[in-house]
Design a protein that fits this description.
- The chain is mainly beta.
- The protein has three domains: 39 residues, no CATH class; 341 residues, YVTN repeat-like/Quinoprotein amine dehydrogenase (Methylamine Dehydrogenase, Chain H, 7 Propeller); 74 residues, Sandwich (Immunoglobulin-like), CATH 2.60.40.
- It contains one helix and 41 strands.
- The strands form eleven sheets. Strands 3-4-34-33-32 form a five-stranded antiparallel β-sheet.
- A hairpin with a 2-residue loop joins strand 5 and strand 6.
- The longest helix is centred in the first third of the chain and has 20 residues.
- The radius of gyration is 24 Å and the shape is globular.
- It starts with a strand and ends with a strand.
Length: 469
């Protein structure tokens, strides 16, 4: 007798007898479940996956071919960036299920010994570094011709030979460079001006708190992840005299402070110590001089589970959790985070090295989630609607999408609702108020590209990417 409950697929099989027809049915159901498990794991749907088939090698101390992930918008298209030992690979992910490679750019070093690459973008340029090999460089790529081509406009080690991480404060045009070698010397943290985006200019260094592994900066306020030296918050408004606003150097699960991210309201900072079994810290930083830990957090899949990189968007914490894959939590209540979703990108057994999900990028307007896995490459996900804390009308009630001249909305309520359509820069293109359930909006005058539709009412709140052909 088999007693199998398949709640996730709304199927229940009880007392399955061993006759041929039911056995065939059972095998069909199992194959259906196994197929679903490939594309869906715990509230996430896999839309696209890519791994290199040209023979790129990962013959380095951790055995990774792939490293960092990034994303950006250019010419109304969404793009993903993934690093390999070979260099930089850019994908058009505007239609996620039909994503495609548009450019591969060799790094300053293409050695299989390259473990780390990092990326950031600013004013239509992509900045790329690596932290291995003395032949590495800072590369700057002009993205203006995408999706047709990418042009490398700067490739030099005049300033940066190697860097572990870079972060660009978009409000000031300053690039913060963590680790590596700058002007031939070991670097803790230095600051470079991108006033001329293709001609970077060295400004100063900052060594007060020792080696800085990674940094988050917004409007001159930097959150420094300083490895074994903890967390430091520094005001860089006066680059001649930066001011440390607060520090956290003694805390639970203290190890190697690796990376962190700030919530949109600026009150919560989450950081991860890159040590097996060490939990992430969710901190109240509303008063930088008194940093308090609200709670700690880990996947706990395995006693040696280890987080790597993280990003926060709309109170959702996205974590590339090495062996455990992608994990997402709701931290709207920082003292009581709740599980939202997960997907294990690494199919081998857990261990005490560094394998699996390296990076995560959830900041594209469409809401898709980009993940890089060290062994398996690029993954693109979206959250299942039921897993979001935002009520959404079903996707099939907005059609056609992509559209040409108009788009239809079939609402689930007759509440008064406000409909906004924004372009990718956040400009409100169309606003409409209505109580109708069946709505048609003429959009023939819009240019081709990506837009975000937002619907707000008393009973529902909804955002969706729409595409004009």
């Amino acid at each position: 007798m088999i007693n199998l409950i398949l709640t996730s697929n709304c199927l229940t099989l009880k007392n399955l007898k061993k006759n041929k027809m039911k056995k065939s049915y059972f095998l069909f159901i199992l194959s259906f479940i196994f197929f679903n498990s490939f594309t869906q794991q715990n509230n996430l749907e896999l839309l696209y996956q890519w791994s290199d088939d040209t023979g790129i090698s990962g013959d380095n101390w951790v055995g990774n071919i792939y490293n960092e992930i990034w994303g950006f918008i250019q010419n109304d298209h969404e793009f993903a960036v993934i690093g390999t030992t070979q260099g930089t690979h850019i994908f058009d992910v505007t239609e996620p299920v039909n994503s495609y490679l548009v450019a591969s750019i060799d790094g300053g070093s293409t050695s299989p010994d390259v473990v780390h690459r990092d990326f950031d973008d600013y004013n239509g340029y992509l900045y790329a570094v690596a932290d291995e090999m003395n032949s590495s460089t800072l590369q700057i790529m002009d993205l203006s011709n995408l999706p047709n081509s990418v042009n490398v406009v700067y490739d030099s080690n005049d300033i940066i030979t190697r860097a572990h991480n870079i972060f660009i404060d978009k409000g000031t045009g300053l690039m913060y460079v963590c680790g590596g070698k700058v002007y031939g010397n070991n670097n803790y943290l230095c600051i470079i001006s991108l006033e001329n985006p293709t001609n970077p200019t060295y400004i100063t260094d900052f060594n007060t708190h020792g080696y800085v592994h990674d940094i988050y900066v917004e409007n001159n306020i930097g959150y420094l992840n300083c490895g074994n030296n903890g967390l430091h918050i520094v005001d860089f408004s006066d680059l001649n005299n930066p001011e440390t606003l607060g520090s956290l150097t003694d805390y639970p699960y203290q190890g190697y402070n690796h990376s962190g991210w700030l919530t949109e309201d600026g009150n919560t900072y989450v950081f991860a110590d890159e040590n097996h079994g060490y939990k992430m810290k969710i901190c109240d930083v509303s008063n930088p001089s008194e940093i308090n830990i609200n709670t700690t957090l880990l996947s706990d899949v395995y006693e040696n589970s280890i987080p790597h990189n993280l990003i926060i968007k709309n109170d959702l914490l996205y974590v590339s959790h090495y062996y455990d894959g992608l994990w997402i939590w709701d931290i709207s209540n920082p003292e009581n985070p709740t599980y939202v979703a997960s997907y294990d990108t690494y199919t081998e057994s857990n261990g005490t090295s560094y394998k699996g999900a390296w990076g995560v990028y959830p900041l594209l307007p469409s809401g898709i989630i980009l993940v890089s896995d060290m062994q398996s490459g690029l993954f693109i996900f979206e959250l299942e609607e039921s897993s979001s804390n935002i009520k959404e009308v079903m996707r099939e009630n907005i059609f056609p999408n992509p559209f040409y001249n108009y788009i239809n909305i079939k609402s689930v309520s007759n509440d008064q609702k406000t409909i906004h359509i924004y372009d990718v820069l956040g400009k409100n293109i169309i606003s409409k108020k209505t109580t109708e359930k069946d709505i048609q909006i003429p959009l023939s005058e819009l240019s081709k590209g990506i837009y975000i539709m937002q619907i707000n009412s008393e009973s529902e709140s909804f955002e969706k990417r729409i595409i004009k052909y």
